[in-house]
Amino acid sequence: MTPPRLPVLAELRAPDGAAITVRALARPDADAPVVLVLPAMGTAARHYTPLVRALHAAGLSVAVCDLRGHGESRPRPGRGVRFGYREIVEQDLPAVLDAVQAAFPQAPLLLLGHSLGGQLGMVHCGVFRPRLAGAVLVASGSAWYRCFGPRAGLRRLVHSQFAVLVSAVIGYWPGERLGFGGRESARLMRDWARQMRTGRYRAHGACADYERALAEVALPVLAVDVADDELAPPRAVDHLCGKMPAARVERWSYTVEQAGGRPLDHFRWIRHNRGLVAAITQWVSRLAADGERPAAAHRADAG
To answer: Could you give all domains of the chain from N- to C-terminal order, each with its CATH number?
Structure first.
């Protein structure tokens, strides 16, 4: 039986008209920390429901939204629908964070980003410096092909450039048919392939230098690699963390043993989350005990 959907927190419109739905489970205490979950490429927010419920049961309020083009968000990728990293970083995430902060004005707010959600979440933090208490990166690493070893890296590099070619020909990436990333915008696939090829985050028309912005992230960050994850191995997580020298990064590895013997990989941790949720809640508690306060908002200088 399919579990009931999470309650709607907000129905949003990005400046260019894209529709975004934010759902949340709130704790009764208004000052309980709130975690905003940002999904991986091609992964609908509904797939994170087991994680949302586990974090909520552990004492946190939790919000989640789809990345543009997936789940409840609109428009769907297709020929003539153009968006990429810039629209997510500069339009969608500001609207979502504003809505969550308005709904939980007394609570410290943290990001929890999975894969691409974590990467773009950290770029957003560097560009706009939102008022956050910290960020958790789970299975979120740089896509740079050199992070994956000679053979695997070369295969990923070739695959990424093939994806750009296919996207250019048909107007979007049919990932649901080709087995990677879901249905994606052609521009987003170009942004992803560029970062895989060069190791650098860039987006045409961006309001800021994304690499320079990452270097200015000064948040506490818990960065977690997951056992048997071929898409975000430890070296890829380290490469992303290395772009944030001002952040207070704590590295941790989530093992099969910590998951109670359940199998793990880039996605299985979402359901097999027991040890991870315990580690996240302990880390959040340490932030509170150390007197961490959210960084001051600094959106005015983004341009």
So the answer is: 8-144+208-293 (3.40.50.1820)
How many residues are listed for the chain in this entry? Answer: 303
Residues 6+ apart with CB under 8 A from 276: 138, 224, 254, 258, 259, 269
Q: Give the 3-state secondary structure of residue 226.
A: strand
pTM over 0.85: yes
Over residues 153-200, the pLDDT tens digits come to 999 999 999 999 999 999 999 988 887 888 999 999 999 999 999 999
pLDDT single digits (tens) 189-237:
999 999 999 999 999 999 999 999 999 999 999 999 999 999 999 999 9
Other CB atoms closer than 10 Å to residue 212's CB: what's the count? 11
Residue 172, classed as helix, strand or coil, is strand
